[in-house]
Amino acid sequence: MISGAGISAESGIPTFRSPGGWWRNLDPMKLATPEAFHKDPETVWEWYDHRRQLVADAEPNDGHRALAALEKRGVVVGIATQNVDDLHERAGSGAVTHVHGSLFEVRCVSEGDVRVNRDVPLEPLPPVCACGSLLRPNVVWFGEMLPEDALARVAAAIEGRPTVAFVVGTEASFGYITQWALAARERGALLVEVNPRETSFTPYADVLLQGKAGEVLPAVCEA
Ligand code: OAD
Questions:
Q1: The pTM is what?
Q2: Strand partners, 139
Q3: How far is the CA of 133 from the centre of ligand 1 (A)?
């Protein structure tokens, strides 16, 4: 199971590229790169603080809940999410890998150690480590590598030969998303996309279940 921003859309969390998405109005190069953080940590943190607030006030939706129910039945064995929110976990999913990091973790820019921080709002902004260096969001920015432990878990899930690989609520604009799905298909998985519309991934999918995750996934669960 690979998820993207679309699965949290029905919880009121904006996507990135769909209408109303962050990248329709904001410049990712000014908010989601190491260079932007180096130049203006306060502006970058203000955006992340706002997103933390949005997520803290949001609730998981029926799509998240259906996946958690399927995990309890042993049908879903893992979720690789590009989302930095915690809505999968709050719906009850346990086997969640955050390939782009987490909104509620901070990392010291000098020491590199990661800690959970759920303070909303964050004060002071930008937050500072006890060592005096800045803390940054523990997320993956443009130009950065994906976390090795997350990559290892995704590789293990693919090697586990899933019978179906769902790709839910994502534009799959990063090549590795399509590559993971195709690697699962090489090992026998049926590729099922869940999205209200066709995406760049659709030509690779065996099946497109066209609709909202909060409607399609409960129906899959029911079936
Ligand atoms: P996008 O905003 O690129 O794509 C969101 C997808 O969700 C679109 O294909 C929509 O059609 C779909 N969608 C919208 N509402 C939906 C719903 N109710 N149910 C199902 N699907 C729905 O978001 P991502 O593909 O997740 O990374 O973006 C990937 C990455 O790009 C993000 O993790 C972020 C961003 O830049 C970084 O910041 C590193």
A1: 0.97
A2: 101
A3: 33
Cβ atoms 168, 3 nearer than 8 A: yes
In the block, residue with structure tokens 């790169």 = 33
- Distance in Å from the first CA to the final CA of the chain: 17
Pocket of ligand 1 (CB under 6 A): 4-7, 9-10, 15-18, 21, 28, 32, 82, 100, 140, 169-171, 173, 194-197, 199, 212-214
Catalytic residue at 100?
A: yes
Q: Residue 68 carries which DSSP code?
A: H
Which residue has its alpha carbon closest to ligand 1 atom 25? 170
Digit-coded pLDDT (tens) for 49-65: 999 999 999 999 999 99
Q: Report strand pairing: 101-108 vs 135-139.
A: antiparallel
The pLDDT tens digits for 203-221 are: 999 999 999 999 999 999 9
Whole-angstrom Cα distance, residue 180 to residue 185? 9
